[in-house]
Amino acid sequence: MRWPVAVAGLCLALTSVVAHAERADGGYQWPRALAFSAYNLGSTGYNQAVAIGKMLKDEHGVTLRVVPGKNDVSRLLPLVKRRVQFSANGMATYFAQEGMFQFATKSWGPLPARLVLSSNGDSNQSLAVAADTGIRSFAELRGKRVPWVRGAPALNVSTEAFLACGGLTWDDVERVDFPGYNAMWNGIVNGQIDAAYATTVSGTTRKLEASPRGIFWPPAPHDDAQCWSAMTAIAPYFVQHIGTRGAGISTAQPHEGATYPYPMLMTLPSQPVALVEALVESLHEHYDQYKDADPGAIGWALDRQDLTWVVPYHEGTIAYLTRIGRWGPAEQTHNDRLLARQQVLADAWARLVKAAPPAAQWESQWRSMRAAALEDAGFEPVWR
Questions:
Q1: Where are the beta strands (DSSP E) in 156-315?
Q2: How far is CA 207 from CA 203, 210, 239, 247, in A?
């Protein structure tokens, strides 16, 4: 396959990152050290990576170095630069695959992302409202104050998707800009806005729950086809889920809404198949050793994996799942379709690089070329 010029040669180079060899008895000779990039220290993503690291040390003598990154680019850059083999990442995985938002710059372009496994826990990702507003549906946000976080497309696109569930757009609400995630949540607690986006287990949501305003999560009803069609047209990474963990929700008071994997362990296609296969096998067979280390770590169970999501799986994952009977023709067909989409994106980016538009026009020309290429190949561009 041909990949974007921005990552040309990267995939082949990655094969040298980890020396590995098959043992005579058919087992896998683990490297002495591995590295993951992850979210900041103290985050659930970081904590889960550390727990996996302890399991790898106990079982295989592998030292796992977890490199924290404060934003999407700083988590993916070490992977691209071959300083880590894997990233315990978030929605930036999908944005990078699509070459959009912060990855639409000349130095990036679409990335050939590959999933290893993901954590699919009991929480949801949603747009919360302050309970004192009396709002009980997304449609009732019309005319209300809704936040926009500068430089945070994962938050803003997801917020837009929940507005769409209620038949709304940004034009139907009062947009209030914030410099960051924490500032947004301080804003809702302080009465500056009426809604804010988060995972239901975020610590910031507990702060709103404990405040005089209180917290409420409007539902995204699973039988509302119009809501879900509108949502996934904007954010195709959302899947239906009943959340039972988080601020204001529980098994006794569940939330009917949406989620996506977090964190998702991802890599690039030329990461050695044997290493990825061995890692997935270990994550499965030794799940009990790390599943209780963080409340979200239960999500790594094999029966919680979404094998037909929006990012393709690595060949090593496929090899292991095939070996244990968890991967079949339907999953392979879906994966092949995702790989074909990535190739269309790679080819379109190569044409853009060859055309070499001025820097000021780079992103606008990429958006246009990307959308046209995907449509010509029978894919939905999602964003234009």
A1: 174-178, 195-199, 215-216, 239-243, 255-259, 264-267
A2: 7, 5, 27, 9
Q: How far apart are CA 245 and CA 381, in angstroms?
A: 33
Q: How far is CA 227 from CA 31, 154, 233, in A?
A: 48, 19, 10
Instruction: Record the tokens describing residue 124, joined without a space.
Output: 């949801």
- Asked whether 28 and 58 are in contact (CB, 8 A), the reply is no
189 to 53, 131, 210, 320, 374: CA distances (angstroms): 36, 11, 9, 46, 42
* Measured distance CA(114)–CA(271) in Å, rounded: 9
β-bridge partners, 270? none
**Cis upstream peptide for 272 (omega within 30°):** no
Give every CB contact of residue 239 below 8 A, 6+ residues apart in sequence.
258, 259, 260, 306, 309
Dist. CA 159–CA 218, nearest whole Å: 13
Q: Is 2 exposed, middle or buried (0-12, 13-18, 19+ CB in 10 A)?
A: exposed
* pLDDT tens digits, 43-102: 888 999 999 999 999 999 999 999 998 888 889 999 999 999 999 999 999 999 999 999
Taking the model in full, what pTM does it have? 0.90
Single-letter amino acid code for the residue at 217: W
